[in-house]
Amino acid sequence: MFKLRLPQICTKFTAQQCRFCTIKEPKELIAKDPKEKDVVEVQEKYDPKKVTKEDMQWRTPWHQKEGQYYSLLRTFYTEDNKRSLLQSLQTPIDLSPSSIKNWWAKHKEQVEILSQSYLPERNQVLGNELAAAHFIVYRGGAVKFFNQDKWIKADENEEYDLPRFYEEGKILEAIDCADMNIVYEGLENLRNLKKVQWLSFNGCERIDDWCIDKISNMFSHSLVYLDLRNCPCITDRGIGALYKLRKLKILYLDDFLRSTTYEMTCLLLEEANPHLEIRSDPVVFET
Amino acid sequence: MFRRYALQLKPLTKTFHTSIKLHEEFENPILRTIRILRDDIMLRNRPGRDEHGRLVSRVFPHYVDIVIIGGGAIGSSIAYWLKKKTNFDALRIVVIEKDPTYRKCSTTLSVGGLRQQFSLPENIQMSLYGAEFLRTIKKHFGKEAEVNFTPHGYLVLASEAGAEQLIDNSKLQNELGAMNRILNKDQLKERFPWMNVSDVDVGCLGLEKEGWFDPWSLLGLLRRGASDLGTQYVHGEVVEFLFTEMNDVIMDGVEGCYEGTNNLVVKLPDGQRKNIQFAACILAAGSESGEVAQLARIGTGRGMLSVPLPVEKRKRYVYSFQCQGEPPGINTPMTIDHTGMYFRRDGLGGGFICGMSPEAHEEPSCDNLDVDYKFFDDRIWPILAKRVPAFEAVKASRGWSGYYDYNTYDENGIIGPHPYYQNMYIATGFSGHGIQQAPAVGRAISELILDGRFQTIDLTRLGFDRLIVDKPMYEIGIY
Q1: Which of A2, A48, A264 sits opposite B474 (nearest CB)?
Q2: Residues of chain A contacting B468 with CB distance shorter than 8 Å
Q3: For A184, which of B135, B211, B330 is closest by C-beta distance?
Q4: Torsion-angle region of residue A213: left (phi > 0), alpha (psi -120 to 50) or beta?
Q5: Distance from CA of A60 to the nearest CA of B (A)
Q6: How many CB pairs below 8 Å do chains A and B form together?
Q7: What are phi and psi of A85, to 5 degrees?
Q8: C-alpha triplet A99, A101, A105: angle, nearest 5°
Q9: Nearest C-alpha neighbor of B181 from the set B371, B333, B358, B392
Q10: B71, B442 in Cβ contact below 8 A?
C-alpha cells in the first residue's frame, strides 16, 4: 500500500563518501601528551561542539525530498503521542483504602516539594540573605542577623517582622530549622549565604545523607556550629562528608556510640579537623 | 391418618428437589455481588499473579513485545523504565541474561564512582540524572532501597598539559548544574595534606552529588524493580537472529531488499534452542555486544550493515590494599590522577581500592578473569606512592578483574536506534562509566520506544549514526 517509489540509494549517503569501518585510535586526534603535540599539530584541535545534531541526520526526511510534501492533514498531526494519558487510561482504577492513602501521601509530598522549591524571583527581590530568612521563618524556623540580638520567629498568628524588600547590611548569622519539615529541594534556598555560623537541623526527619552533602558544600566557608540531633536518616557516610566544613568547631549528634563505624567516623572527623568537638546529649540507658 | 402424614411430608420432599446446592454455604446474592466487585477492584483475581501482585507465570515467552539482550544494569534499567512508563499488561518485556550470577558483568568491576566531571554535555546531564535517581531511589523501589551513597567528593587532578582543559570542562559542568571547584596547587595541598602535589597543576573537586555508591545494590534494585513490574528474565544466550525479506519496506540508504528481523533463537542452559518473536529488540549486552551485533549482521552485511558495533571486551583490574601507618584520613575524596590511576577509601580502617587502565600495547587477554598482580607492582604502585607518600609500602592484598564494554571508536556509550533496522535499539559501549548513567540510559531508550523521540536529555549525538557519518564524540581530558 505504501509502495510509492522504487527503492533507491540515498544520494547524500554516497556523495559524502562516508568511510565505513574506519575505526581510529582515539589518541590520534587528541593532544593529551605534550610529546605528541608536535605530531598532531597539523590536525585541527578536536572540539565536541563541532559535532551537531544535524550531522547525525544523513538521510533526507521523506517530506523534504523533491516532489514530496506533507498533506494538509499534517496540520492535525501532533508529534506528542500522549503516552502518559494512554497509560492512565489503561491503568485499572484501584479504589482500595491503601492505594488511596498512598496516592494522598504522594500528592502531599509533591506539594511540599513544590512549595519549598527555589524561586528566583524571591531572591531577586529580597537578596539571598533575606530570601533565606523569609523561607525559614515562614515555615516555622527562626533566624538571627548579625548586629541584632533577637531571634526572628513567627508568632502564634504566623506573623513576623522581616523587611519585605532588599536591605543592605542584613546578613544572616544563625539559622534554626528545628522541627521543620525541610526537604532536599528546600535547601537550595539557603545557597550563597555569606556568613552563617550557626545552623540547627534538630528534629528534621527528612534530612538525609544527600542533604548533608549539600549542606556541607553550601556552608563550607563559614559554619562553626552544626546541630544534627534527632535526624534518623543520617548515617555514618553522611557524617563523614562533614569534613568539607573546614571551620566547624561544634557538632551535635544523636549518640555517636550507636555503631562502630559511626563512632569511627566521628573520631576520624575529629582527627581531620583538630578544632572540632563532637558532642551529644547524655545517653539514657533503659533499664 | 395416612393422608394426614402424607400432607405433612409433602413440603419435606419438595425441598429435596430445589436447586439449592447443599454442599455450598448459602451466600446472600447482594453480598456476593459486592464481593466479586470488590475483588475486581482490588486486583486480586488477575491471572498469572500471586497475592503480592507479582508475575508467577514462568512459561517460556515465545511472543513478546520487547526483548532486551543483556540483563545487567543497563538492560534492567531499560526494562524498569519501559514498565514504569506503561501499565502492567501493556507491554510484554523479556530480558535475556546469559549469566544470572553476573560473574562476568561489568558491574562487578565498577567501584561505583558517581561524578559529573565529563566534557560532553550529554554525559554530564546523564550523570546528573543518575545522581537524582539515586537520591530519590526510595520513591522508585520502596522504603528499604539503599545504595549506600558516600558523599565524599570526586577529585580529578591535571598536570600542566591538561590544566586548561580541566578548567574548561569545569566551566561547562557548572553551567549544566554540577557543583565543582577548581583548586590550584596550594589549595590542594592545604585541603589534602596527605597528597604530593609537586607535578599537579590544578585539581577539580566535585562538591555535591559526587562520591561513590554500591553498584551491586543498584543492579539488584533495578532488576527487582523491573521484575516486580512484570518483566520476565530468561536465563539463556542469544545464538541466532532469523531474517525475513520485507519487500514492502522502502528505506533510504538500503541497497536491494530490506531484510528485517523479528525472531531470535535463544540457547537455554540445558542446551535447548527456543525461538522468541519480538516487535523490538534492545541490544544491551555490555562487553559482548559486539558479538551479538554480528549475529544481527551488524558489521557483516553491506551498506549500513558494514559498520560494525565497535564494542570490545577489555579486561581491567581493581586492587585493594591496606595502608599501614598514617593513611589519608576521612578527607579523602575519590581521586583520579592525571595518569588515569584512581583510588578511593574502602571502609574506615585504612583500606583502599585502586585501578588503572593499561596502555594500548599492554592490554591483557580476555580469555580468563585471572588477576595480574604484576600490573599493580609495575604500573600502579609507582604512581600511587608518588602521589601519596603514605602509600610507599603498600602491597595489593586482593584484586579482582572484570570486563569493560570498551567502545574502540570513541570510548563513549552508543545509545539509540540502529539506522538499518526499524526495530533495533542499541545501548552499550559505556567504557567504564555505565553504572552511574544506567538510570538515564534506561529512561532515554524508553522515551525512544514509547514517545518516539528523546524527551528529557537529547542523546542524538551519541547515537549509532555517528559511526556512519564518522563524527566521533571524544571525552577530552577525562579518564
Answers
A1: A48
A2: 18, 20, 58
A3: B135
A4: alpha
A5: 8
A6: 172
A7: -65, -45
A8: 115
A9: B333
A10: no
> A34 to chain B nearest CA, in Å?
6
Contact A51, B467 (CB under 8 A): no
Chain B partners of A205 at a C-beta cutoff of 8 Å? none
Which residue matches cell numbers 494512554?
A86
Q: Calculate ∠ Cα A103-A109-A112, nearest 5°.
A: 145
pLDDT tens per residue, range B418-470: 999 999 999 999 988 889 999 999 999 999 999 988 999 999 999 999 999 98
Burial A12-50 (b: 16+ CB within 10 A, else e): ebeeeebebeebeebeebbbbeeeeeeebeeeeebebee
Name the residue among B85, B161, B470 with its Cβ closest to that of A18.
Answer: B470
Answer for the pair A173, A223: CB distance below 8 angstroms, yes or no. no
pLDDT value of residue B375: 92
Of B43, B148, B410, the CB nearest to A237: B148
pLDDT tens, residue by residue, B223-266:
999 988 889 899 999 999 999 998 888 888 888 889 999 999 99
Residue B86: list chain A partners with CB under 8 A: 87, 90
ipTM, 2 dp: 0.83
Q: Let me know how long chain A is.
A: 287
Beta bridge partners of B269: none
Burial of A126 (0-12, 13-18, 19+ CB in 10 A): buried
* A53 contacts on B by Cβ (under 8 Å): 458, 460-461
Q: Does B90 touch chain A (CB under 8 A)?
A: yes
Q: B276-286 burial, b for 16+ CB within 10 Å, e for fewer?
A: bebebbbbbbb
Q: Which domains does chain B have, with CATH numbers?
A: 62-112+214-310+408-479 (3.50.50.60), 152-210+313-403 (3.30.9.10)
Q: How far apart are CA B104 and CA B479, in angstroms?
A: 22
Q: What one-character DSSP code corresponds to residue B107?
A: G
Query: For residues B441 and B74, is the Cβ–Cβ distance under 8 A?
Result: yes
Q: What count of other Cβ atoms lies within 10 Å of the Cβ of residue A174? A: 17
150-209 in chain B: CB under 8 A from chain A? 150-153, 161-162, 179, 191, 207-209
pLDDT of residue A171: 93
- Count CB atoms within 10 A of the CB of residue A114: 9
| Closest by Cβ to A272, choosing from B43, B162, B330 | B330
Chain A: closest CA distance from residue B331 (Å): 6
Q: What gap in Å lies between CA A158 and CA A85, rounded to an integer?
A: 41
Domain range summary for chain A, segments of one domain joined by +: 110-280
Chain A residue with the nearest C-alpha to that of B475: A48
Mutate to test the interface with B, among A243, A256, A267 (most CBs of B within 10 A): A243
The whole-angstrom separation of Cα B313 and Cα A74 is 47
Instruction: Please give the torsion angle defined by the CA atoms of residues B209, B344, B289 and A31, in that order, rounded to the nearest 10 degrees.
Output: 90
CB-nearest to A30 from B153, B330, B476 is: B476
Residues for chain B: how many in total? 479
CA distance B73 to chain A (A): 22
Measured distance CA(A102)–CA(A105) in Å, rounded: 5
Task: Count CB neighbours of B31 within 10 A.
Answer: 9
Fold for the domain defined by A110-280: 3.80.10
DSSP letter at A38 equals H
Residues of B in contact with A246 (CB under 8 A): 191
For the record, the C-alpha cell of A104 comes out as 494522598
Best mutation target among A58, A183, A190, A278 (most B Cβ atoms within 10 Å) is A58
Residues lower than pLDDT 70 in chain A: 1-45, 283-287
| Residues in chain B, pLDDT under 70 | 1-25, 43-58, 479
Q: Do the Cβ atoms of B250 and A3 come closer than 8 Å?
A: yes
